[in-house]
């Protein structure tokens, strides 16, 4: 099964809408300048909500081959949910993707597996492709074994919704923003376990077509090692996605 590699940049709470325009323009030029034929790699950015309209306008006006998505969405469609953003609004902005269950949402905003499942269902309902993040702490991996906690987290989502397309991001908590990435072998173990979990829940065909990403201190110097692993189909990149040259170098991991 051919799974197009996916390089996704999670900007977190960085870059206002003016900086977002400059960054996306520069990214498009950098990918083009390097004559990087990125038809064989999908590149997407995940800016803060307030940037999305500007990014959408730029990408559609200049016909850039960069996708975009949001970093979160509400599990509800509309109503008295101050500060939340509906998947319907993201779909109206032509967002293709939405990140769900990032570990910063789980730890800082108390999002449970059930909330993550409800948000995934909301994304699917509105035609967005969810990028579902799962991952364990170092202690959980040591005590319970590779893949056990991430597969349990994903299972709650898989039992609640069966989308035609989903992206799964394995992000060990200890590797996010720490500068200490998992080894490709460690990441492969967990990504393979996640793919087996998808096969058990949804069957082999969906497991074979679902892209599983690794995330956690990815940079241009370590991306190739991850992408050589059979069950790793790309990366969710945080800090390094804010540096255009570095992010473009990650997207050109084959060169
Ligand atoms: C992330 O926020 O999803 C992430 C992986 O961050 P970083 O690349 O900075 O570790």
UniProtKB/TrEMBL annotation:
NCBIfam families: tim. Pathway: Carbohydrate biosynthesis; gluconeogenesis; Carbohydrate degradation; glycolysis; D-glyceraldehyde 3-phosphate from glycerone phosphate: step 1/1. The keyword Cytoplasm applies. Keywords: Cytoplasm, Gluconeogenesis, Glycolysis, Isomerase. This is Triosephosphate isomerase. It comes from the Bacteria. The keyword Cytoplasm applies. Its EC number is 5.3.1.1. It is found in: Cytoplasm. Homodimer. It catalyses: D-glyceraldehyde 3-phosphate = dihydroxyacetone phosphate. Substrate binds at residues 10-12, 177, 217, 238-239. Belongs to the triosephosphate isomerase family. Involved in the gluconeogenesis. Catalyzes stereospecifically the conversion of dihydroxyacetone phosphate (DHAP) to D-glyceraldehyde-3-phosphate (G3P).
